[in-house]
Amino acid sequence: MLYILNINQPRMSTNKEVLYKGIKYLGFALPLMFIGPSVIFSSFKNQSHPFYIPILGIGIILCLLSIFLIFKGIQTIMKSLFDGN
Fold first, then answer.
1. Exposure of 15 in the CB half-sphere (CA atoms within 13 A)
2. CB contact at 8 A, 69 and 36
3. Contact yes or no for 14/80 (Cβ under 8 A)
4. From CA 28, how far away is CA 40, in angstroms rounded?
């Protein structure tokens, strides 16, 4: 078969600034993926302590923040790879 290449067709290029921004989001999410569950585990081990509820809340907030940053990072990386601008 003969394939004809269209030389005039523009190539998609990666927007490196947006890519680095997405990688930075994922870099901030990585430690939170470990810190959040550790804080939750620590709060469950000390249920008789008066700060049990606030520490549990902080752990849950850290886990939710990690999930949000992962979503935002992957979304930003996909934008840098496939956005036509």
1. 14
2. no
3. yes
4. 19
CA atoms of 9 and 5, how far apart (whole Å): 9
Band of residue 7 on the pLDDT scale cut at 50, 70, 90: low
Structure tokens at 16: 């490196």
Segment 26-71, tens digit of pLDDT: 999 999 999 999 999 999 999 999 999 999 999 999 999 999 999 9
- From CA 73, how far away is CA 82, in angstroms rounded? 14
Specify whether the CB–CB gap between 62 and 35 falls below 8 A. yes
Scan for tokens 């290029």, then name that residue: 13
d(CA 31, CA 15): 26
